[in-house]
């Protein structure tokens, strides 16, 4: 059991300083598809690694363009706006459907703008990852008194929390989608 706890703690420590690039840190130069895919993989590989599939492929990007989730590239070049969308989409699709991701992005973009929404999302995601790191290393945050961090309960607790947070996110997105539709109809 001690070896398992040590490995869990080491994993948590390795992710403690995980950082998503803010809008201003994304490349200013336009990029080609293969460069975008490499860059997104570089940014997200510390938190999403799977032997089963690639994080992002050219066909995924093309589908996101086709479905109106990201703007089409200009002359086969992608901007920092594209990279920001692709980072958020790649992370969010881990727990939400593509349609829910699209609705959430549309809502946030309309409410506070793409740049601010992206930066806020990065802050929120990093805080959530740090909370998980705190659990994995055995350090509780001030607001987490009721959580059981013992290694034998951590998977069940984390899966339950992920499910509950997914339910909440789905409900909020449904309400936001309804709000946007009502706003469009009332215009």
TrEMBL record:
InterPro entries: DUF1836
A Pfam family hit: DUF1836
PANTHER family: DUF1836 DOMAIN-CONTAINING PROTEIN, HYPOTHETICAL CYTOSOLIC PROTEIN
Name of protein: DUF1836 domain-containing protein
Lineage, highest ranks first: Bacteria, Bacillati, Bacillota, Bacilli, Lactobacillales
């Amino acid at each position: 059991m001690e070896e398992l706890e040590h490995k869990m703690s080491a994993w948590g420590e390795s992710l403690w300083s995980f950082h998503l690039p803010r809008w201003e840190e994304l490349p200013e130069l336009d990029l080609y598809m293969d460069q975008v895919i490499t860059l997104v993989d570089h940014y997200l590989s510390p938190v999403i690694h799977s032997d089963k599939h690639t994080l992002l492929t050219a066909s995924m990007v093309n589908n996101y363009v086709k479905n109106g989730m990201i703007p089409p590239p200009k002359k086969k070049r992608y901007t920092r706006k594209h990279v920001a969308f692709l980072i958020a989409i790649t992370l969010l699709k881990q727990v939400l459907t593509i349609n829910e991701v699209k609705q959430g992005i549309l809502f946030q973009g309309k409410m506070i703008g793409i740049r601010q929404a992206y930066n806020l999302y990065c802050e929120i995601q990093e805080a959530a990852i740090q909370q998980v790191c705190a659990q994995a290393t055995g350090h509780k945050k001030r607001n987490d008194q009721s959580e059981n961090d013992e290694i034998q309960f951590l998977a069940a607790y984390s899966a339950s929390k992920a499910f509950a947070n997914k339910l909440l996110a789905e409900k909020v997105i449904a309400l936001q989608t309804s709000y946007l539709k009502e706003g469009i109809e009332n215009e």
